[in-house]
Amino acid sequence: MSTILIADDEARIRRLVSDFLKRDGHTILEAADGKAALELIENRRPTLDLAILDVMMPGMDGFEVLREIREQENGEKHLPVMLLTARAEDADQVRGLEGGADDYVTKPFSPIVLAARVRTLLKREGRAASPLEIIGLLSVNELRREALDALLKKRETLRPWPVNEVELPPLPLRTLPPHRTLRARFERWEQVPEQALSGVEYLILPIAQADRVPREWREKTLLELPRVMFGALEEDTARRIAATQDAGFAGYEVSNIAHLRLCRGLPMTGGFGLNVTNNLAAQYYADLGLRSVLILPEVKDSDISTIAPTRDGKPVPTGVITYGHMPLMVTRACPLQNIHDCAHCDKTGLLTDRKAKKFPVRCGLGVRTIYNPVPIYMGDKPGALTVDYGVAYFTLESREEAAAILDSIRQHAPFEGEFTRGLYFKGTN
Questions:
Q1: Chain-centre distance of CA 308, in angstroms?
Q2: Cα separation of 132 and 301, whole Å?
Q3: In whole angstroms, what is the distance from residue 69 CA to residue 174 CA?
Q4: Residue 6: its pLDDT value, please?
Q5: Would the pTM of this model clear 0.70, i.e. be above it?
Q6: Rama region for 140: left / alpha / beta (φ>0; ψ in -120 to 50; rest)
Q7: Using CA atoms, how far apart are residues 200 and 157, in angstroms rounded to an integer?
Q8: 29: pLDDT confidence band, cut at 50, 70 and 90?
Q9: Would you place residue 134 in the very low, low, confident or very high pLDDT band (cuts 50, 70, 90)?
Q10: For residues 108 and 231, what is the distance between their CA atoms, to the nearest angstrom?
Q11: CATH topology of domain 3-136
């Protein structure tokens, strides 16, 4: 039996690791940040057998705690340290191991594998399990072998799988609407040109920008809810919905399933985060009351024409991205930490791949979003996709750039600069 410290700012991770290690008979100590972890280590060092440290913790990160541990040992018994982190880059692992870490585990991880690595590390450090623990583990392993043998024997007997033929109804096929409308989504109010409402069905703005929208614009403005919500952000979003539902806005653009409950009974449209790629998904959201549904740019043009949700016998409008730098990844781990720390960051940056492509990074609401360096543009092909509306999805653009792009879309003009058609004409196969 060993005493193990788990230091991680996520209570969920601490609980998960603790539960699995307790099954092996270990005593668990917990810390929510680096400073608390270091205090526990200083007070319990003689009886402590292992420290599992998350690298990304507030205040002192895991690397700093590790450095303090090694500096304070001064001939005392070596304390094994395992680093636990979402940062999987080789450079980070090398930094951790060269700093004195005994093992390095990346998130997401299997708790069973982590527990096995803990046992291996303790055994290597001379902190092996007691004879009673070993007997228990041997018994468990014997039971596992018996269960596996029984399963393999059962698999030797082949049994026919019953098949019931089901005739699926033919896929719906939409026709091109006589007039396709345009919606314009902006990251912040400063991006919105003065002439934005000209020829635009709806403006779409994050709900945090609601107070910036003039009252005369609100009946044509949809409030976008945060695509990803952690902790207090969900409560904050609920408060913002309550504060704006009677303020004259056209409705709310929802981006995950949790939003449906927050906006129950209120006018809702489906946004990018719902990941709608087929008619079943579109119909599901239509049945839940969504007034329109956005289709992902990964869907091929021929498949888009089969996405035709209805409600009460009437078509529910569908839309596509007409312009925009698409979000490639949303992550809580900051990909710019190796470049500069948060204190000296303006929440923007660039990642460069091996082909010298530059991927914009933006930080906000507790997450970092990595965007495609090249925007989608379909403004010059208004009749190519069978949908009711297109969305100009502005994220990185200035007000002047947004105005010029909106003019190009309205005039069905070619795009000036490098762009992509998404997968509208290629599909994912």
A1: 28
A2: 65
A3: 66
A4: 92
A5: no
A6: alpha
A7: 64
A8: very high
A9: very low
A10: 20
A11: Rossmann fold (3.40.50)
